[in-house]
Amino acid sequence: MTAEAANHVPAVCDRASEPVIHPRWVRVTHWINALAMFVMIGSGWQIYDASPLFQSLYFPSQIALGGWLAGALLWHFAAMWLLVVNGVVYVTLGIMTGRFRRKLLPIRPHEVARDFVAALRGRLSHDDLSVYNAVQRLLYLGVILAGLVIVASGLSIWKPTQLKYLTAFFGGYDTARYVHFFAMSAIVAFLVIHIALALIVPKSLRAMIIGR
Amino acid sequence: MASLKKLPPGVDPRLLIKDAAKSLPQPSRRLFLRGAASLGALSMLTGCDIIDGPTAENALRVVSRFNDRIQALLFSETTLAPEYPESAITRPFPFNAYYSLEEAPDIDGETWQLEIGGLVDNKKPWRLAELNQLPEVSQITRLVCVEGWSAIGSWQGVRLSDFLKRIGADLTAKYVWFQCAEGYSNTIDMPTALHPQTIMALKFDHQTLPAAYGFPLKIRMPTKLGFKNPKYVTAMWVQNNDAGGYWENQGYNWFSGL
Ligand code: HEM
């Protein structure tokens, strides 16, 4: 098909013969996850406002989702299904296909330090998008773990009786709320860096959309 | 102001009112999806307003009903909410309602009666003195508010399942509906009504229930969010239709299990 299509739209088809950097399942689950995360974070901020953990921290309704507590809870407990089902698919495929092992491991501290310094100097190579540098590996593995923590701590504050052992694992109901909050903070911090880098290296964004 | 006198010692009325004000429904509540600024871009992308409009609200409520069923499946009549030692009790225990403490019902325990209705053999109303003669159970459990905060309290009273059997209620009915003096109401599922920790609380911390906590009768169920625990209860009906409730009808999840 490549040869035939090349006659019509050569520019695109040069690319079509390039190897796939991100298979379709990665791209689909990535963007579903991005949508679910934005809904969860936006509605979570509105829920937070009903009983703030920190006196000086409050999220204005304009940047939150849901308008009032009940609306935010409806969004939160609807988007959680999207987040969890999609997350289970992504993590399962990531392990089964060996993608996590190939792309995210190993993570060696001296490589992270080296690539971090290189990144600050603007000297990181982006020629081969199919290989993640050590900082990327650390950030991606970290955010996947933060995703697990936010889901588990969320379940523990949603069902502190039916899932009381999980709640106890997180140090009880009140502590679990803080765990849930800090997991959100970690994900938001990741997102700030992640989105900035995707915009600085637009071809990485293209690869996450069309695969190459 | 009469009810203020019934405040338990150590309760700061100003704090109580602040708490109450927080849960006041906002005038914008019917339009709660309007705040969806962070999704505004998305609705522009898709070129329609499912994010803002009644379609989204309906879809979200369908998911909320689905979540009711999931929570009913997750609920176990034998899983007990954690209980705590006396030293863990939150003092002062917060007052929380959609009105201020001054506006809370000031009920005369002498004339008050609990009206019984629905699928029950003996519909004789109960007076407070009669309820106080029934066997008492006690619990120190955590009240978890839908707003996110929690507080540990100590309640004593009659186990609801024992009471339902005593009055010959149809235990195969689906719901129990509670009506309260100030107009509040809510409906709970029968499995929760029969849970061993669901009690008709007549006392808080071994003292007659203060006005702030629902005198003369609060239904205490540590397996549900605070707003599902009605205070100032005046009537109890066993029935097969879901009569909804004050907050549930405004969009809060119906089951609200913990
Ligand atoms: C608008 C929001 C987002 C944009 C523009 C975006 C962009 C991208 C891009 C361009 C890549 C490929 C980067 C590369 O080649 O190094 C990527 C990968 C990744 N992103 Fe995002 N992302 C967004 C939201 C999120 C969110 C919310 C999360 C998780 C909380 C997330 C987690 C990840 C992970 C774990 C990977 C690696 C995936 C893999 O290789 O399996 N992203 N993202």
N-C termini distance of chain B: 35 Å
- Look at the helices and sheets of chain A and give the structural class: mainly alpha
User: What is the typical, i.e. mean, pLDDT of chain A?
Assistant: 91
| CATH architecture term of the largest domain in chain B | Alpha-Beta Complex
Strand percentage of chain A, roughly? under 5%
Task: Please give the count of helices of chain A.
Answer: 10
Which small compounds were modeled alongside the protein?
protoporphyrin IX containing FE
Question: How does this structure look, described?
Answer:
The complex is a heterodimer of chains A (212) and B (258). Chain A has helices spanning 2-8, 10-16, 24-50, 69-96, 99-104, 109-120, 134-158, 164-169, 173-200, 202-210. By secondary structure, chain A is mostly helical. Chain B has helices at 13-22, 40-46, 54-74, 128-132, 160-166, 190-193; strands spanning 113-118, 126-127, 137-144, 150-159, 175-180, 185-189, 199-204, 207-208, 218-220, 233-239. In chain B, 42% of the residues are buried. In chain B, the strands form two sheets. Chain B has a five-stranded mixed β-sheet with strand order 2-1-10-5-6. In chain B, strands 3, 4, 7, 8 and 9 form a five-stranded antiparallel β-sheet that branches. Chain B starts with 12 loop residues before the first helix and ends in a 19-residue tail after the last strand. Chain B folds into two domains: 36-73; 81-250, Oxidoreductase, molybdopterin-binding domain (Sulfite Oxidase, Chain A, domain 2, Alpha-Beta Complex), CATH 3.90.420. Residues 1-50 of chain B have low confidence and may be disordered. Chain B contains six helices and ten strands; from the N terminus they run αααββαββαββαββββ. The chains are: A mainly alpha (212), B alpha+beta (258). The A-B interface holds A 35, 38-39, 42, 46-48, 50-51, 61-75, 77-78, 81, 159-162, 164, 168, 173-174, 177 and B 22-23, 25-26, 28-29, 31-39, 42, 57, 59-61, 63-64, 67, 74-76, 79-82, 142, 144-150, 222-223, 247, 250-253, 257-258. The complex binds protoporphyrin IX containing FE.
